[in-house]
Amino acid sequence: MKNDIHDLGLVLDSRVRLVVIQSWEELRVLEAIGTLAVKRGLTWYTWNQVEGLRRLGFGSALEEADDLTDPEVALEHIRQQREPALYVFCDLHPFLQSSRLIRLLKMIAMDPADAAPTLLLVSHELTLAPELRRLAAHISLSMPSDEQLASIIRDEAARWTERNQGRRVRTDNRTLQQVVRNLRGVTLGEARLLARKLIVDDGAITQEDLPVLNRAKFSLLDMQGVLSFEQDAARFADVGGLAQFKRWLGDRQAAFQQPQANGDSPKGVLLAGVQGSGKSLAARAVAGLWGLPLLRLDFGALYNKYIGETEKNLRDALAMADAMEPCVLWIDEIEKGLGEDSADQGVSRRILGTLLTWMAERRSRVFLVATANNVMQLPPELIRKGRLDELFFVDLPDARVREDIFRIHLGSRELVVERFDLPLLAEASAGFAGAEIEQAVVSAVYCAAARQEEVENAHLLDALNETSPLSVVMAERIQALRDWARDRAVMAD
Ligand SMILES: Nc1ncnc2c1ncn2[C@@H]1O[C@H](COP(=O)(O)OP(=O)(O)OP(=O)(O)O)[C@@H](O)[C@H]1O
């Protein structure tokens, strides 16, 4: 499956407390889980029968009176915890015959509290007792292999050589192996950008680069980072609907790639609309379609009091984006930083000023994609004609698009799409956003796996029935958004 790390994220969101990951590659699975935990700000622990329970993967063993190398004692300890942490059990499989242990797992899996621990069982092979099967999600994590990481470094070295009159990148095997090891746990896209960063300054990858790499990897994962490289851009084939938007971009691709003599090139768009309808996915897909790196600017982090002066942070981030041209700069939830009810009016006015000045004066080929849920909060200056090329409204998907979204998400989980009754599913998901449809597919997949059944229409219908879509809960807000958009925006679909 290609979406598996993403799926693990969704499974965690759906509050499944017991996740089974079958893999021979424990180290790489741990690194991927660690990466996800850091991104989500979750504490995580590992357990194995030799070292017992350890905090943060490689930290020291917990100081407990009891012997936490005993899996039952460790599980009993976890059962008492009231924080949403991840507990990764490596090789619990030899113990899965014990009825007490099974009971403990079941109690943790059924814990209804919001702030409760999640168990991830990692083994090369693991069969759950029947009473646990329905409670568990099964995920297979495939991450970039060492060979893939090494080949990315070779690629980037070749690119550099091409740009530097055939000069070769200086390095040695030992350092390369260390770099590959340090890159484990990041996605392919992130690995590419990190490799590029190492080479670009001096045309060499040396021991001195290792701390640089670690710092860069850390800042990539660092939640406070204002600007981050986004993982692999999406493909437009992964986005259901949004036909108008896709056409619009297609028409401008050439102009962006070969700027006109007068310096005019497409500047950017605002995607506004209903939550979970694929705005972020579409932003990623712009980078995919145009084959450009994607940078994400986090307005929330700009205001973080720990990282200093807000406007300077924004100026630095914009300068960095300029230096990375050509690229796509994605500002997610732009209303959070510029909205009329944002925390500090003075700062948000100055931030708006800085952004508008950059938009008006820049000559770099940075295509801005701003996404917003609550567009009504946005300052009128930003959306005034001419600032951005276009304002698109992304509505809930209609039946035809919902079929497409099912097709995309069933297909990406290697299910045979023809076996499903798409019109029936589209009808049953009226009012669902794309994200909710995807969530239903994921929960159907793991429900079926737990029952050792093939995924059928019925599993999907059950999952849909169990969800009450946001469009019902927020019907009035969505209508207000539509009314707002009617005279101001172009429909994205
Ligand atoms: N039109 C769509 N086609 C395919 N998948 C979709 C679509 N809309 C949503 N999804 C799925 O739902 C996930 C979440 O959607 P996404 O984050 O892009 O929505 P959003 O509009 O940006 O929502 P939010 O405003 O909550 O951030 C996507 O990663 C994708 O997997």
UniProtKB/TrEMBL annotation:
Keyword ATP-binding carried by entry: yes
Instruction: Give one GO molecular function term.
Output: ATP binding
Query: Per UniProt, which keywords does this protein have?
Result: ATP-binding, Nucleotide-binding
Q: InterPro entries recorded for this chain?
A: AAA+_ATPase, AAA_domain_protein, ATPase_AAA_core, P-loop_NTPase
Looking at the record's lineage, which domain of life comes first? Answer: Bacteria
Which family does the record assign? Belongs to the AAA ATPase family. Highly divergent.
Return the protein name: Uncharacterized AAA domain-containing protein ycf46
Q: Which organism is this entry from? A: Halopseudomonas bauzanensis
